[in-house]
Amino acid sequence: MTTLPQVSASGPAGASARAELGLEDDFYSTSAGQREKALASTDRLNKTGDRIQHGRQQLLETEVRNVAFQIEKLHLSIRYSLLSVNYAC
């Protein structure tokens, strides 16, 4: 049984190994490049999810404020209506 020498994917030895395999100009076709690309995609996906979650939170807060404002407006309208009825009588 023969053993193959370990070759690092980075540094000068890694560059020569990639050149030997014909991958010197195509970093993203290597496993290290694919891993880096997957990590970058995962990071973008996580950031997008965070932005969506933040937007939902802002929407909820806006709805709560709007409901509170509408209730206050309705309360004042009822109060003024009751006051005008009391003065009319």
Summarize the topology.
Blueprint: H1 11-20, H2 31-88
Characterize the largest beta sheet: strand count, sense, and whether it forms a barrel.
none
SSE order = HH
User: How many individual helices?
Assistant: 2
Poorly predicted runs are none
Alpha-beta content class: mainly alpha
What's the helical proportion of residues? over 70%
Q: How would you state the average pLDDT, rounded?
A: 82
* Rg over C-alpha atoms, rounded to the nearest angstrom: 33 Å
| Total strand segments | 0
The separation of the N and C termini measures: 109 Å
Based on CA inertia axes, which overall geometry fits?
A: rod-shaped
Beta-strand content: under 5%
Number of spatially distinct domains: 1
Protein model, in words:
The protein starts with 10 loop residues before the first helix and ends with a helix. The chain is rod-shaped, with a radius of gyration of 33 Å. Helix content is 76%, strand content 0%. The protein has 2 helices and no strands. The protein has one domain. The protein is mainly α and 89 residues long. The longest helix is centred in the last third of the chain and has 58 residues. 1% of the residues are buried.
